Amino acid sequence: MTRDQEEFIGVLNRHQVEYAIIGGKAVQSYGSTRKADDLDVWINPTAENANKMVASVKDFIGAKLHPSDFTDDNVVYFGRNPYRIDIHKDVTGLGRFSDHYPDRVPVRTNEGTEYSVLSPKDLVTSKKAAGRPKDLQDVKYLEEHVLGITRQENQKIKETQQRPLRKVDFEQFKQQIDLVEYAKDQGYIKDLQRSGGNSVSLYKADSGGKDRIVVYPRQGTGADIYFNPNDGADKGTVVQFQHRRGTGEWKDTIEKLQQYLGQVDTRVERTVGQTVTTATNQPAPTREQAVVRSFDLKPLSDTNYLKSRGLSDETVRAPEFENAVFNRNYFDRNRGKQFVNTVFPIKNEQGTVAIIVRNENVKIVDGSRGDGVWISNPKVIEPGGRVDRMVIAESPIDAMSFHQMKPPAEGEKRLYLGTAGNLSSGAPDTVQKLIDKYQPRQIVMANDNDNAGIRNNINLVGRMRYPGIQESNNIQAHLNLPSPSQARLTVSVSHSDQAIGKQMVQELTERFSMVLNKNSPKDEPDARISVKSWQDNRTEFEVSMPNTRQNLIRTQNELTAAKGLQEVVSLKLPHNKDFTEDLQKGEKLHLTPLPAPMKQQAAPVLSPEAPKMVPKFDLPPAGMKR
């Protein structure tokens, strides 16, 4: 999948578009090695979903389309062959989108972007209806390698004795298999200490604690749902559980689940529609409650470590950090001693996905942070309120040190974020969602005063979109290091037509060239700029430069200005390595005054029937108030 295609999927996810990938890319997701360069996307052609598509396309390439473009019978496409992106409103051989959407299968790219593909059964139906030679080859692959159907020499389809096609029913697997019992059969052990209510925590004894799952019932459906607190992508039903822990071949996943169903006739079998209850009839815990129990988080009572870093009791107990810092006990069997660690939850839109664990000589991340970041207490901002300052640091302790050096003025509403070190690939998306939600008047980049911290600034600003500043939408950028001595900035420019695009790109390349090569050392190569791709509404160019502090600082400043963010983004480097060290050395912190309030953007009006993703950013763990 190309970078543009993956970015487009990310935009669809961000706007909560109902879609499923079809065609060759979908077949590839089931393990096929056949060539497929273009991306075919089937969308729900409803008015509500069409509005989301309009917003997605504007976000992706800056083009303004009409909702009718996504409800009529025509195919909408972006880019050029062979890497075109095609948007379909109907699929040959299949009926309504809504009839097939519930059966979609979640997958993810190598870079961690999650997306949905058509179920193998629906893919086979659509491919048979299309009937082209390559479609029939896809049918053969899906039937033999995914659905478990073999062909005799005369090409007549013969169902295998163990895996008849009519029994490949993912809903049957989800509703008739008790996930807790199934996991025990696979060698998982129930953790009695961390289980409670309606959730069950299980772990693999030989995994060093990394392969741990929490299972809880989805009320009213009879289907168990699980997640792995150490891996944000490891979640779903028994189908995803087995697929991730099996061979990765769908035919093997299906066979394994079918065999298990054949064995459970002597067990207490769950029937379709049966509601899972316990003797206490307690309500199913929320995901956040189950995660907190799994990580064994305790209310913050031991603040010795925080105070050893120079933080005052007033800072530690500030409202901004309530329900954002916890304790967790650790017993060292070798030393026969119990320690109390300080813990900072890492959250994404679904809730806590990992934790930062800190103590003297302890600095680890427990779990897969994925697109998560640490977030201070958003309850200091009333519901629907707007943040005055959003401060982004690498660690929560740096953010708390920043707070102590320059507390919020009276009436100032401040939100702190911590990226847990270098940016993960998905962290900028989570930061962007928080910017969209709270629309901060000022965003302070408070990362470390080293090259890695400046690169974090560049990549956060590069992906940033600020309401009301069109340049921030039109220009997107990412910096990587092809080698330790070389840096490469990839800049993507969206424009309404090629003439305007040519002018924009020329101005940008001239600006970067002039700034980066001005007064550069004689023995240092100049920055080189090359255009990599031209499309009707999108152009991409690269800036290759020596990986020096001077070049990185010039790049962050120029990128901030080019995106029109110089009045919104404040680039604040500490005097020493980080703001924790600044605090300990008694340095002074001066902030740029808050800009005048911009007109707040109106939230989009959704119909009463519109499905809403409920963000968990501002939901503290239950029972964790101090």
Question: Could you outline the blueprint of secondary structure elements for this entry?
Answer:
Layout: H1 3-14, E1 19-22, H2 23-29, E2 39-43, H3 47-61, E3 76-78, E4 85-88, H4 97-100, E5 105-108, E6 114-117, H5 120-130, H6 133-146, E7 149-151, E8 157-159, H7 170-176, H8 179-185, E9 188-190, E10 200-204, E11 212-218, E12 223-228, E13 231-236, H9 238-245, H10 250-263, H11 287-295, E14 298-299, H12 304-308, H13 313-316, E15 326-332, E16 337-348, E17 351-359, E18 362-366, E19 374-375, E20 389-393, H14 396-405, E21 414-418, H15 427-438, E22 442-445, H16 451-463, H17 470-474, E23 475-483, E24 486-494, H18 498-517, E25 528-534, E26 538-546, H19 549-562, E27 569-571, H20 579-584
Parallel strand pairs: 2-4, 20-21, 20-22, 22-27
Antiparallel strand pairs: 1-2, 3-4, 5-6, 7-8, 9-10, 10-11, 11-12, 12-13, 14-15, 15-16, 16-17, 17-18, 19-21, 23-24, 24-26, 25-26
Summarize the main sheet. 5 strands, antiparallel
Total individual domains? 4
DSSP, total strands: 27
Distance between the termini: 47 Å
Report the β-strand fraction as a percent range: 15-25%
CATH C-level class of the largest domain: Alpha Beta
Biggest sheet, strands in spatial order? 9-10-11-12-13
- The average pLDDT value, as a whole number, equals 83
Radius of gyration: 26 Å
Oligomeric status: single chain
Provide a count of the helices: 20
Instruction: Supply the helix-strand structural class.
Output: alpha+beta
Low-confidence stretches: 153-167, 265-281, 600-615, 619-626
Second rung of CATH, namely the architecture of the largest domain: 3-Layer(aba) Sandwich
Assign a percent range to the helix content.
Answer: 25-40%
Protein name: DUF6036 domain-containing protein
Pfam families: DUF6036 (PF19502), Toprim_2 (PF13155)
Domain DUF6036: 15-140
Region (Disordered): 599-626
